[in-house]
């Protein structure tokens, strides 16, 4: 078991709370029959957290991008498998590219033509499983 400093534990808890809220709100929009692009307020609240974990916004496209580097191909493939299972549960699939120990991921929601809460939720999950 790993032990993290209190500040890191609190940050993870806050991140998980934001992720839960996003998922709940995302489901409400889905139940209403539409997935919506993040509002300006939502972007100001949610994107800085992802920028802090090295996600960047794609120039010329409403999308997020991050590159992950692992020890070897087996670790990269294991990571991709965990992400794939979650993506399937969410019915929200990343665009990705893998060569040996590197995985490049781009997130955007095609149904609404840009970033949605689904992307934030999946990016947060991806960050969590990238350190396992």
TrEMBL record:
What residue range is the signal peptide? none
Catalyzed chemical reaction(s): (4aS,6R)-4a-hydroxy-L-erythro-5,6,7,8-tetrahydrobiopterin = (6R)-L-erythro-6,7-dihydrobiopterin + H2O
GO MF annotation terms = 4-alpha-hydroxytetrahydrobiopterin dehydratase activity
Q: Where does the UniProt annotation locate this protein?
A: Cytoplasm; Nucleus
Q: Could you name the Gene Ontology cellular component terms for this entry?
A: cytoplasm; nucleus
Superkingdom as given in the UniProt entry: Eukaryota
GO BP, sorted A to Z: tetrahydrobiopterin biosynthetic process
* Alphabetical list of InterPro entries matching this protein: PCD_sf, Pterin_deHydtase
Keyword Cytoplasm listed: yes
Q: Which UniProt keywords apply?
A: Acetylation, Activator, Cytoplasm, Lyase, Nucleus, Tetrahydrobiopterin biosynthesis, Transcription, Transcription regulation
Classification via Pfam families? Pterin_4a
Output the SUPFAM superfamilies linked to this UniProt entry.
Answer: PCD-like
The entry assigns this protein to a family as follows: Belongs to the pterin-4-alpha-carbinolamine dehydratase family.
Q: Give the matching NCBIfam families.
A: PRK00823.1-3, PRK00823.1-5
| Main function | Involved in tetrahydrobiopterin biosynthesis. Seems to both prevent the formation of 7-pterins and accelerate the formation of quinonoid-BH2. Coactivator for HNF1A-dependent transcription. Regulates the dimerization of homeodomain protein HNF1A and enhances its transcriptional activity. Also acts as a coactivator for HNF1B-dependent transcription.
The record's listing under HAMAP family reads: Pterin_4_alpha
Protein name per its UniProtKB record? Pterin-4-alpha-carbinolamine dehydratase
Q: What is the organism of origin for this protein?
A: Silurus asotus
